[in-house]
Amino acid sequence: MKTILHRLATGLFVAALLSTTAFAQTFPGSDDFSAGESAKWDDEVIRFAGATSDGNLGFANGWLEYTKAATAGGTVTNQFIRWNSGNGTSPDMFSYTTSWVMTVDVTNTVVGGALTSIGIQVSNYNNDGYASIYLAESGNSTDVYARATGTGLSAVSSGTFSDNTDITLRFDWDASNQILSSSYAIDGTTFTSLASYAVGGWSTAPTDGFVMGIWAQSSIAAEITSGQLYADNFAVSAVPEPSTYAAIAGALMLGFAAWKRRGKRA
Description:
Blueprint lengths: L1 H20 L7 E3 L9 E6 L6 E2 L1 E5 L2 E5 L9 E7 L10 H4 L1 E10 L7 E8 L6 E8 L4 E7 L7 E2 L9 E8 L4 E7 L6 E7 L12 E8 L10 E11 L2 H24 L1
Parallel strand pairs: 3-6
Antiparallel strand pairs: 1-16, 2-6, 4-5, 5-16, 6-15, 7-12, 7-16, 8-9, 8-15, 9-10, 10-11, 12-13, 13-14
Helix pairs in contact: 1-3
């Protein structure tokens, strides 16, 4: 009987635990880029609308760096690379039904007198709805911006600050309330909220999952030779819902009750 009860308690706990980790084999993961090119990222890269030429997000120097060749004056270059965590799924439906946190460290020290940006973006599969947070350098100021579809595309700015290295950008997805929030940290730990968005304002809700990734852009005509534009320490972590914690607690209590009854019969 003791063995049966032990198996029952263990089984209940494992069942509850599986409900928290079923998504652990999908979209969560991290990359510090120290290994170079990785299967955690899609082979296919994307150029956003508004750009007339490609830049290059390349795995080099232990980070993901944006470079570009010389282009005609006024030419905008950009590139977006999608996260798939190494399992070949981009997007993953669990990224819509499960709360998560995404962070990346970015540096933008480019000198060139024109706008350069690097950041993270999430969108629906059709890419007709998106939200982005990025570090921008204009030659005159350094700012973190957040913008999204459904808000008139107006950018919310952090205000100019002097630090342009290792700024941590962050997205928090609240699956219960379907709210996407953006924030940033200069020291990597103390986050300042920037903007929050209800994805219901998008033309198509990302019910099939979010397309996640890193992007960079430049309006500099010359090749980038002074300063650098790169991302490092990318991570996406799933956040269990309160109901999940309740399920685990319930399973543990059932197991405890079974052991307690066994003890009384002894």
